[in-house]
Specification:
globular, GIY-YIG endonuclease, about 25% strand, single chain, 5-stranded antiparallel β-sheet, alpha+beta
């Protein structure tokens, strides 16, 4: 019996959308979502909003992102909503985003408990540490 050596490769994550879907509403929804991968390898689905269009939210994780004209994205800040008041959370997100120069907010709504939100935020911070190290030390500047 002959032995064969196999190597495992990661599958590319590119999604191909059918032409019928691209022309309709499903394309808008696909363009408004983004997966971010944590250090653990887990993927987290985020809804993408502009800083101005971001809705009030009570319990969620979010990434403040600077998107360049060429489409590249840089994560500037990762946090969780702290208040039970959705409008207060929105005000904090917009203030922090404006101070960092963010123009997008990527919101992860799927973590249901405080511990799940904390683990997801830590996983993403560990994965994106290189980008986040440029963040100012004093968050209240």
């Amino acid at each position: 019996m002959a032995a064969q050596i196999l190597t495992l490769a990661r599958k590319a994550e590119a999604r191909v959308l059918p032409a019928a879907v691209v022309s309709g509403r499903a394309f808008d929804e696909a363009a408004r979502s983004k997966f971010w991968r944590g250090a653990s390898g887990r993927r987290y689905l985020h809804s993408v909003y502009s800083l101005v269009e971001c809705p009030p939210m009570s319990q969620a994780n979010y990434l403040l992102v600077g998107r360049a004209a060429d489409g590249s994205r840089q994560v500037l800040h990762i946090a969780s909503c702290e208040s039970d008041a959705p409008t207060l959370n929105l005000a904090r997100i917009r203030q922090r985003g404006a101070s960092l120069g963010a123009n997008e907010v990527h919101v992860h709504f799927l973590a249901e408990t405080d511990s799940e939100r904390w683990l997801a935020a830590c996983d993403l911070r560990a994965s994106l540490f290189g980008m986040l190290s440029a963040e100012p030390a004093d968050a209240r500047v």
